[in-house]
Amino acid sequence: MSDARGLAAEAVESHVRAFFAGHSVEAIEFDLGPERREAIAGVRILVVAPGPRSDSWAYVTAGCWAEMEKDGHGLEFVMTAPARDQRFIELTAMIAYYHCGGHQLGLEHSMPIGEPWVPGSACDHLLVCLPYLHGPDLEYCPLPEGHARILWTLPVTAAEIEFRRSQGHEALEQRLDDAGIIPTDPFRASVV
């Protein structure tokens, strides 16, 4: 990884640590294997424990910006979950690979997981949204060569993705909001 890319990933990590001051934050180098290693060579997963800002766990990418930035702008991703679990570390690494490996996720995009978020969950897709649980102070991360935008990957059901395709992203977000879902509940009912 180049020095500039390393500095960018470190800046994202510093931003996340500052935002989650008072939380334990662990940086994990996760290897998806030799065929995927190159696409996310410089990506780390930041595991944020519950604390003063949030009672849930957060898993944040640090390094996607460095792999995919254009004109100083790029993305990182956050997933919130009810526990610390290797499953969520792996899923966050999969998000990074999906984004950096050719699919280039963005706001209002979705990603199929290919299986339930956790065993028994109806949620088998991730919806890329604004980080409503954390707000713009986490979302906008200044970097030495531009800025990263940290977007939320919310677990949703296949039925919710179909609803979004027919009715639009805003309509789905409104349904989720009206239902008052707990976004970290893997066993929540579909809102459609």
Helix coverage percent: 25-40%
Shape: globular
Helix tally equals: 7
- What is the count of β-strands? 8
- Using only C-alpha atoms, the radius of gyration works out to 16 Å
The helix/strand order is HEHEEHEHEEHEEHH
- Uncertain parts: none
Strand content: 25-35%
Which structural category fits the helices and strands?
alpha+beta
Distance between the termini: 44 Å
Q: Mind describing the biggest β-sheet?
A: 8 strands, mixed
The residue-averaged pLDDT reads 92
Description:
By secondary structure, this protein is α+β, with helices and mostly antiparallel strands. It has a domain at 3-106 and 128-154. Helix content is 36%, strand content 27%. The chain contains seven helices and eight strands; from the N terminus they run αβαββαβαββαββαα. It has helices at 3-19, 34-37, 64-68, 86-103, 136-139, 158-167, 169-179, and strands spanning 25-29, 44-48, 57-62, 73-81, 110-112, 123-129, 140-143, 146-157. Helix 6 packs across helix 7. The chain is globular.
Layout: helices, strands, pairs:
Elements lengths: L2 H17 L5 E5 L4 H4 L6 E5 L8 E6 L1 H5 L4 E9 L4 H18 L6 E3 L10 E7 L6 H4 E4 L2 E12 H10 L1 H11 L13
Parallel strand pairs: 4-8
Antiparallel strand pairs: 1-2, 2-3, 3-4, 5-6, 6-8, 7-8
Helix pairs in contact: 6-7
Offer a concise description of the structure.
By secondary structure, this protein is α+β, with helices and mostly antiparallel strands. It is built from 7 helices and 8 strands; from the N terminus they run H-E-H-E-E-H-E-H-E-E-H-E-E-H-H. Helices cover 36% and strands 27% of the residues.
